[in-house]
Amino acid sequence: MNNLVKSGIVEDYPPLLDKKGSYTAQFEHEVTVSTTTTTLGEPKGATMDNFMNMTKEAGHTPEIHGLIDLHAVYNDAMDGQLILAPINVQEPGKRILDSGTADGTWLRGVGSSLSARRRYFGSDIEAELFPARLDGITYFQQSFQEPWPAELKNSFDLVHVRGSLAGSSPKRPVKVIRHLASLPKPGGWIQLMEMNAFSPPSNGPAMTDFARMASEAWTGIGVGDFANANQLKPMLEEAGLQNVADRRVVVELGKKAKPELRAQSINGVSAPVKPISAVARDLGTSFSREQLDGLQGRVRAGGWS
Questions:
Q1: Distance, first Cα to last Cα, the chain
Q2: Across the strands, what pairs with 158?
């Protein structure tokens, strides 16, 4: 283990307790071997591919753990109301799609809160993220950048996407949203949820730097503020959707989080720091290599307000 730490493959953590006779709990939750290189004139889409490759090399385990932890924090911030669209979710037979579903965490959360029978569908470009246990969810591989199969169009009561629109690089997410707009049935809804990295609330130095680094990375891959919460409403209206509304949810992280959610919030938000930093390193930002290398550790250490 010491050799792995010295080689930079595994990160070491100080003991949680250090009094004589106490026990230490340690969980190594990220092993990354990166083959990412910087190429002069590299297409912006290829840079986002490097982000996907980095999570693949880690076996997707840190990504899944981070998504599960963030889901718990989001769910608490939204008072358990995962569906904000004004649909009668207790009515039987509703068809709900989660695009970019990963392991289906959001769908399972919705299913656990509802009693009526309905059909759940989860799509993702990475089929290896799908869980072995289906729990009544139909999973299928699909990139939201591509047109959806004809049999799925005009068939869903709710289409949900969370934290995925940066994957529309190198184009603006408008094309993705237009594809999504073909899926709801008449009277159906689309619900998008994205991080506000371009005008975040005031925070500690580490989280402020993370938000600034993410905004520079999204700008560098060509999606910029358009993959951000600030532009979701006009993009939905541009795609021809009606009754568009937005809601800002403040998610408490780190020291601000509830004690029982503090560790999950830190792991959830810090898990993507390293692959996003790799994107920023490829593109060139205002951050030095040393600053990018140390950012994840700073976020995990709790340099937040």
A1: 33
A2: 96, 189
Residue pair 166/149 in contact (Cβ under 8 Å)? The answer is no
| Predicted pLDDT at 14 | 53
SS3 at position 216: helix
| Low-confidence residues in the chain, pLDDT < 70 | 1-60, 115-116, 169-171, 197-201, 222-230, 302-305
| CA distance linking residue 122 with residue 115, whole number of Å | 19
Tens digit of each residue's pLDDT (9 = 90 or more) over 155-214: 999 999 998 887 776 667 888 889 999 999 999 999 998 877 656 667 778 888 888 888
AA letter at 60? H
Token couple for 142 = 């699909």
d(CA 121, CA 274): 30
pTM for the whole structure: 0.75
CA distance 166 to 172: 9
Distance CA 91, CA 102 (A): 26
Please report the beta strands in the chain, taking only residues with DSSP state E, as ranges in sequence order: 95-99, 119-124, 137-141, 156-162, 184-193
